[in-house]
Specification:
globular, 4-stranded mixed beta sheet, single chain, 6-stranded mixed beta sheet
Length: about 525
């Protein structure tokens, strides 16, 4: 242990020296909020990038109509001062604040949201999150059949009013409007930049481009930093406690840790697994439940060429996993073992799920299972350790052989998407705060149903939930659906994810929501 500690100290000193060399002048500014990113982000365009790190930056540049409170999880007003929902749950009318301005001083009006939605839904842009908004009336035809945008039920009834009508009631629709991809966009600026449906346009990397959020891009040096300065026209600027935000891409979690320890960073993105226990009782240690589940996909497709497991075999595999060993011995970060797929984030759903769901553990498989099977994993060392633990459990208890097939990220995605696996480690992070984001993906033919599992009654239950406006009845339908998913063991949940990171002593509140959005007006100093 002492020898390992000496190696670690020598490592972090060298890393810390590197940090000081590449950017001390930025780290040292007392009015700058200094945030580490896990990677260099792909884009600042809020309609094209999808990573958690990019969302952190985009929230500082683009303000949405509503936000999600980091503590309660409730939808709260931002650029919209209020909203009304029709009795049938299909029409939303947002009233904008009268004092909204772009960072160039021009007014933000409802037409700016109209333009943003037109761009988001257009097929040529191929925005990653556009499918979430196909619930808007006319959106699917506009995206897939290239009909006129005027047929989409998004209207600016006046400068301060935006009205959106849905094909059907969508109980979580307000939270979709909290995602950066739904923020207003500066139409005139994008049109000057050329084809505003061009995925390769660099309009969002131009320092000083018009922003609606509390900060404006001042400098972006790839693989070094992204600097933002205060937006002088932001309507709620009086709440900001920092004049500048600087984001540093750091793939090394040890470099991030050292940045916190020597007071050169305020917030990092994660902690190395082998360092979590070091900070477990430290005031710097932060832990937050994440809207995510770590699980194993079983291949249910008999025509794939891979091993297609029967329901009985899948139940046997489900029950011969000691989840507490994985969360306690390998992860050690307070995550909850999971025998269900939907995380315990929604109390009303939890109350129903305890009555409705019987896990596969309550219906164990009978007989035995034999053979040699491939377990596909990505190149993460954490995933390797989990895979080896599961391998040991199954080989020791069942007598089967498990070959771990580890591939770098792009190859892993390709193999998973083609169904070239027998079993596959996977993580799912929800797109919106509702159980449906974990359950709809297992309907027949869904693009994320990599198990190729199909159950007609499951499909019916999910479809019925779309039409149900009573929240308790809707959750009951979803609970019954999850019951079928687990009883047939199409997937093998392992644990519910959480987020652990370090926060420096000079920062009070860091309000990061389950959508990974951050409200920078609520970031406080100590």
């Amino acid at each position: 242990m002492v020898f390992r500690s000496k190696i670690f100290n020598a490592l972090v000193v060298r890393i810390g020296f590197g940090i000081l060399c590449f950017g001390y002048s930025c780290f040292g500014k007392p009015d700058a909020l200094r945030v580490a990113l896990s990677v260099e982000i792909e884009n600042l365009d809020p309609q094209l990038s999808t990573s958690i790190d990019s969302i952190k930056v985009q929230c500082a540049l683009f303000e949405t109509l509503v936000g999600v409170d980091s503590e309660s999880g409730r939808v709260v007003p931002l650029s919209a001062k209020s909203w009304e929902i029709s009795n049938d749950g299909r029409t939303y009318k947002f009233s904008l604040r009268e004092d909204l301005k772009w960072s160039d001083g021009t007014s933000i009006v409802a037409d700016d949201y109209l333009f943003a939605m037109q761009r988001l839904l257009h097929g040529e842009l191929a925005a990653p999150f556009a499918d979430l908004y196909l619930c808007i009336k006319g959106a699917r035809a506009y995206r897939e059949e290239d009909t006129a945008f005027s047929s989409v039920a998004v209207k600016a009834t006046d400068e301060q009013t935006l009205e959106i009508t849905l094909e059907r009631p969508v109980p979580y629709f307000l939270s979709l409007m909290a995602r950066p991809c739904a923020a207003a966009l500066p139409e005139s600026f994008l049109k000057k930049s050329g084809n505003f449906y061009d995925r390769n346009s660099d309009w969002a990397s131009v320092p000083g481009f018009p922003c609606s959020g509390p900060f404006v891009l001042s400098e972006w040096v790839v693989n070094k930093w992204i600097k933002l300065k205060r937006n002088p026209y932001y309507w709620n600027g009086k709440e900001l406690q920092f004049e500048e935000v600087v984001f540093y891409p750091m793939e090394s979690v040890y470099a991030q840790e050292q940045g916190i320890l020597v007071d050169l960073l305020d917030v990092n993105s994660k902690i190395a697994t082998d360092r979590v226990m070091t900070y477990f009782n430290s005031p710097m240690y932060q832990r937050q439940d994440e809207m995510g589940t770590f699980y194993i996909i079983t291949n249910c497709n008999e025509g794939s060429g891979a091993a297609a497991f029967s329901v009985n075999e899948r139940r046997i595999l489900f029950n011969e996993v000691n989840r507490e060993v994985i969360t306690g011995n390998l992860r050690g970060r307070g995550e909850s073992p999971a025998v269900r797929f939907v995380p315990p984030l929604w109390q009303d759903y939890q109350n129903l799920i305890s009555k409705e769901v019987q896990s596969a553990a309550e219906r164990p498989g009978e007989g035995s299972i034999a053979g040699k099977f491939r377990l596909l994993i990505s190149s993460s060392e954490t995933n390797r350790a989990i895979a080896e633990a599961v391998q040991s459990m199954w080989e020791g208890r069942l007598g089967i052989k498990i070959e771990i097939v580890q591939q770098e990220w792009k190859s892993y995605l390709d193999s998973r998407n083609r169904g070239d696996f027998d079993l596959c480690l996977a993580t799912w992070i929800g797109d919106y705060p509702d159980p449906l984001t974990f359950l709809e993906m297992w309907t027949s033919g869904h693009t994320n149903n990599f198990a190729k599992w199909s159950d007609p009654r499951y499909d019916e239950l999910v479809e019925e939930s779309h039409l149900e406006t009573d929240s308790e009845k809707r959750f009951a339908l979803l609970a019954k659906a999850e019951n079928r998913l687990l009883n047939q063991a199409a997937i093998i949940p392992l644990f519910f994810l959480n987020r652990v990171y370090l926060k420096s002593d000079r920062i009070g509140r860091w309000p990061q929501s389950v959508l990974n959005t951050v409200d920078y007006t609520k970031v406080t100093r100590k």
